[in-house]
Amino acid sequence: MTIAAILKHKGYDVAAARPTDTVAEVSRLLSGRRIGAVVVQDEAEHLLGIVSERDIVHALAANGARALEMTAGQLMTRALRTATPHTTIEQAMTVMTAGRFRHLPVVEHGALLGIVSIGDVVKARIMQQDHEVDSLKAYVAGAV
Fold first, then answer.
1. How far is CA 137 from CA 17, 125, 141, in A?
2. Four-residue CA torsion sign, 66, 72, 78, 84
3. CA–CA distance, 84 with 116 (Å, rounded to integer)
4. What separation in angstroms does the CA of 98 have from each of 9, 33, 91?
5. What span, in angstroms and rounded, lies between the C-alpha atoms of 70 and 19?
6. Are 51 and 76 contacting, i.e. CB atoms less than 8 angstroms apart?
7. Strand order in the sheet with 47-52
């Protein structure tokens, strides 16, 4: 199973912020959409970075209320790890676990296609394992 299957199921909508958006604006977007991260894009929709809830919490701990006036461009993670639609569920899980992050932008030919969370990846992996178990049960039942 690949990331393409996850996107096909969950959709391709991605919440985005501009680098000049304040952390307060990004927080409202995260809260309003009930999501954990937004990508940061320029006017031409080039992917510049990502801002997660964790980034905001770290900024608040370091800067107090002043963090809300900081911009997405100041706070975003710039060294992004990305996936392609052809990335397997296992590969995505390995990258996310090793990098200790929970959101993975999906890019193909330089264009942002979507984003997957660790929850999406784990759910897909569980579905994949359930299918394998059902197939094995059917095989064993047919072999007896």
1. 47, 18, 6
2. positive
3. 11
4. 25, 27, 11
5. 10
6. yes
7. 16-17, 37-41, 47-52
> DSSP letters of 96-142?
HHHHT-SEEEEEETTEEEEEEEHHHHHHHHHHHHHHHHHHHHHHHHH
Element (H, E) at 52: strand 47-52
User: Which stretch of DSSP H or E encloses residue 62?
Assistant: helix 53-63
Q: Convert the pLDDT of each residue in 101-135 to its tens digit.
A: 999 999 999 899 999 999 999 998 888 777 777 77
Please state the CATH superfamily assignment of the domain spanning residues 3-143 in this structure. Answer: CBS-domain (3.10.580.10)
Q: CA-CA distance, 122 to 124, in Å (whole number)?
A: 5
The per-residue pLDDT for range 65-115, each reduced to its tens digit, is: 999 999 999 999 999 999 999 999 999 999 999 999 999 999 999 899 999
Give residue limits of the domains in the chain.
3-143
